[in-house]
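Researcher: Re-running this chain for the archive, since the previous output was lost when a drive failed. Same request as before.
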Amino acid sequence: MNSLKIYNTLSKAKEEFIPLNKNLIGMYVCGPTVYDDPHIGNARPLIIFDLVYRILIKKFGKNKVNYVRNITDIDDKIIQRANELKINIGELTKSITDIFLADCKYLNCLNPNHQPKATDHITAMIQMIENLLTKKFAYIKDGNVYFNVNKFKDYGKLSNKNPKELISGSRVEISELKNNPLDFVLWKPSKDKEPSWQSPWGNGRPGWHIECSAMSEKFLGKEFDLHCGGLDLIFPHHENEIAQSICANDSSIFAKYWMHNGYVTVDGKKMSKSDGNFITINNLKNNYNGQVVRLSILGTHYRQPLDWNLNILETNKKILDNWYNLYSPSEDEISDEIFNILLDDLNTPKFITSIHSLYNKAKTGDDLAKKNLNSALKFIGLFNENKEQFNIIRKKTKLSISDIENLIDQRNLARKNKDFKKADAIRLDLEKNEILIEDLNDKTHWKHK
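Model: Regenerated structure tokens:
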């Protein structure tokens, strides 16, 4: 078995992955901000870093990998969305978190060891901010606490840009209260009816960046091995995490290695909710098995842009249908020869090419090729059910109670958002599955036909 090599965004080079402690490997992935249904752009890091987790388990052992993926459940976007929908913030975050977790299951992603929510760790955030103030890395202005970027000499190292480049065209928050445009908020006063917590600087709420620093420290320590996320998080989010964590903890590093996946695009433009050019994961569930989506994501190298269209799904649906003709329920270990392909910076295109080769050999009666085909596909999160299950799409199945309740929650959220087209589509979907619903006294009741 070869050594694992990954492209480290921090060094801008492919490096051998050498853990700080091979008996306790720490991996942190920035999870969702739960304000709206996750889309295919959100699915890419879920699938990519799930595969990284699988590789680390295979390479070092399941009990030696600590995988943490957070849930951001307090943020400006969440407050704005709840106000638009005229619903309670807790109701919104619970509903979207449930949808997110259902999407993870649909995509056959393994559960992380920990999935901390930001609102459960406010005390740790306040303590870190107090520490930064004591060490003069932060300052207070009108109840706001800001990090002083000038105090951290390596600021911009991850994004490989100087301060002037970072300010230009970036997602930096504009405020006259800041000493420097690049300074970022650690704590801010809450407005009327916004969630707030008591702090030494008055009632307020944390900034976005401090959340991940506090949660990663709690579950992984002051220094850990691997931090992952989308390309759009390099600046300002990950740059700011590094600055505040190193300064608060007097450490030489924050995370040793950084991995970032490329954008999902539509007609060459980044998929995003703000541009309205997105497809939610939930939109695909009635027509495509989650394995089809997973294979479609893995077909492109994780650092390259992935231009999304339905042709990709249709092509991979046919490929998987052919591969499933050789499905075997036996559980065999992936061979080192095939696994080594993934160890070279997650070379999934080459890995899938090797699977095509195995399939062509296996369909001629080569038993070893069939065995290797099955073990390779299972390793990357495919072949997790038999052919009959693969071919049954959701609208032809009997829904579980949790499925029904999840769909009803999604419909109610759509109605509050005045998205009546989506609400009606969900009602029809339930009816096709022999479920009748009735809205009565602000509650939705259901029964079998």
